[in-house]
Specification:
single chain; about 140 residues; alpha+beta; 3-stranded antiparallel beta sheet; 3 helices; about 30% helix; elongated
């Protein structure tokens, strides 16, 4: 049986929405500023897919590295998305920078964890890759 996810959004004025996930967590979505009718009081709708990509991949990678018994002490990710000029202005390019910190991390294990997330496990990556070329870079910092 497939997994069903739900969300609700309530308009709260200007361009703001209070968005609640089916699991009960809430965030504010808004546009960047007055020129768009917003107040920059929350996440923009197009920031959310990038955040979803980072957290989806991050959780996969951490889980895989734990199973591989890698001594990961820190992991930071950064995403940069380029949108199409024509509407609906989907992402056409996304670059994800992965910065790993740990003790004696095996570069092959790190690369494999990233590859498995991108090609097998991360549903957000699978969706975004339908319109965007996603590239990854990685840095490993020894402590």
């Amino acid at each position: 049986m497939s997994s069903i996810k739900t969300a609700t959004a309530k308009f709260t004025g200007g361009m703001k929405f209070e968005v609640t996930s089916g699991s009960g967590h809430t965030l504010i979505a808004d546009t960047a500023g007055p020129e768009d009718g917003g107040e920059n009081a929350g996440f923009s709708p197009m920031e959310l897919p990038l955040m979803g990509l980072l957290t989806c991949m991050g959780m996969d990678v951490v889980s895989i590295l734990r199973k591989k018994r890698q001594d990961l002490t820190g992991y930071e990710m950064r995403a940069r998305g380029v949108r199409a000029e024509e509407h609906p202005q989907v992402f056409v390019e996304i670059t994800v920078e992965h910065i790993f910190t740990g003790r004696h991390l095996d570069p092959n294990a790190v690369d494999r964890a990233m590859e498995l997330s991108e090609t097998k496990y991360c549903s957000v990556s699978a969706m975004l890759s339908k319109t965007a070329q996603i590239t990854h870079t990685r840095t490993i910092q020894e402590i």
